[in-house]
Amino acid sequence: MMTYAEITGWGKCVPPAIMTNDDLATFLDTSDEWIRTRTGIEERRVSAVGTSTMARVAAENALAAADVDATEVDLIIVASCTADEIIPNMASKVQQDIGAKNAAAFDLNAACSGFLYAMHYATGAIKAGMHQKVLIIGAERLTRILDWTKRESAVLFGDGAGAMLLESSENEVGLLASKVSCDADARDVLSLDFGLGFDRYDFDGVMPFNFEGQEIFKRAVKGMSAAIEDVFKQTGKTVDDIDALIPHQANKRLIDFLGKMCKVPEGKTMVNIQKYGNTSSATLPIAFCEALETGMVKPGDTIMSAVFGGGLTCGAGLIRWGERVTPLGDNQKTLPEDGPSALDLILPLYKGSKAAWENKGRG
Question: What is the first-listed, main subcellular location in coarse terms (predicted)?
Fold first, then answer.
């Protein structure tokens, strides 16, 4: 009998501090209209806590939704490009915080494609009988790495986390087919010069963030289109079989393109970029949570997801949802509401970046 990886739990964590487009316009040469018409974004969240804290909250919510104790989890995969530390990995911190003492734990960095990559490999591990209950998490604190003097990239991103629990099942549900890939010839069009190539003894306060928007968009369209077609070929399904589209939330124009390609009406295409911006690996699980909360996803629905991110990584997956669309337990745990405002968190970063670039120019 075939084994499948059923999605039994889901949860998200979005920071309470909201930065609107009008807030950004107080220190950047931009406007609400300029941002909305080009991206579809109206606001984004800014976290006062580390990425691992958001990951932990999302994980606890996913476990609550599945009514599964953390000790039953045997693998944790955290997808992120903004981990709190280089060593040890963030997944081990989540394991410690939620008490999943029986789980193996590792991080995965495929940028915005990270969560689908995690689902792809977690599903394979469950189908192979290597694991029974896998917790996958996408978590990002992108606002800490942006150059806030660069309007073209600073307006796009936000913070957040989302998680799913996958369990071994005989039901033909979960990720039924997927395709992941990487267009490494263009890996430099979306990059942040940091990590082990970073000279910490000669740091001038500027972390070069390269974001070539037009080239990224062009390759995203090509990459996601190819991945979706590959998934259709694997399954024998067509656009007529798709009940909902839940894509990566990078740009409203890109989401609209995918909707037309999959012939999914607007009401069945999940769009929440206006509230959160691009939260990289967290966009997909947050979008799934909200699709379930709003009733967009129905029992037995066939869902197409597509992602694209730095690397340039890419992927698509065909998911059949199970019979349960409501959580078994309370999966609405949130971060404390009494923290600093988004502007209080971002203005020091903006001033630091501006001063660093001025000093660099004088040098």
Answer: cytoplasm
Structure tokens at 244: 């909902």
What are the helix (H) ranges across 205-341?
213-235, 252-261, 273-276, 283-293
pTM above 0.85, yes or no: yes
The pLDDT tens digits for 123-175 are: 999 999 999 999 999 999 999 989 899 888 899 999 999 999 999 999 999 99
**DSSP letters along 220-248, please?**
HHHHHHHHHHHHHHHHT--GGG--EE---
Instruction: Mark out the alpha helices in 50-104 (DSSP H runs).
Output: 51-66, 90-98
Q: Single out the residue of 51, 68, 45 nearest to residue 133, CA to CA.
A: 68
Q: Which of 313, 315, 112 is nearest to 226 (CA)?
A: 315
- Catalytic residue flag (residue 131): no
Sequence-ordered list of residues with C-beta below 8 angstroms from that of 220, at least 6 positions apart, any chain: 250, 254, 308, 314
Contacts of 172 (CB under 8 A, 6+ apart): 2, 4, 320
Instruction: Choose, from 13, 81, 112, 314, the residue flagged as catalytic.
Output: 112
Q: Out of 109, 251, 278, 331, pick the active-site residue.
A: 278
Place of tokens 């920071």: 15
Domains of the chain are 4-322 (3.40.47.10)
* Given the residues 248, 262, 289, 331, the one annotated as active site: 248
CB neighbour list of residue 173: distance below 8 Å, 6 or more residues apart:
4, 6, 7, 320, 321, 322
- Token digits for 44? 């984004």
d(CA 285, CA 259): 18
Q: Is 81 a catalytic residue?
A: no
Query: Quick count: other Cβ atoms within 10 Å of Cβ 149?
Result: 20
Does residue 316 sit in helix, strand or coil? Answer: strand
Tokens found for residue 63: 């476990």
pLDDT tens digits for 340-350?
999 999 999 99
Match 């018409």 to its residue by tokens: 37
182 is catalytic: no
- The answer to whether the peptide bond before residue 336 is cis (omega within 30 degrees of 0) is no
Q: How far apart are the first and last CA of the chain?
A: 68
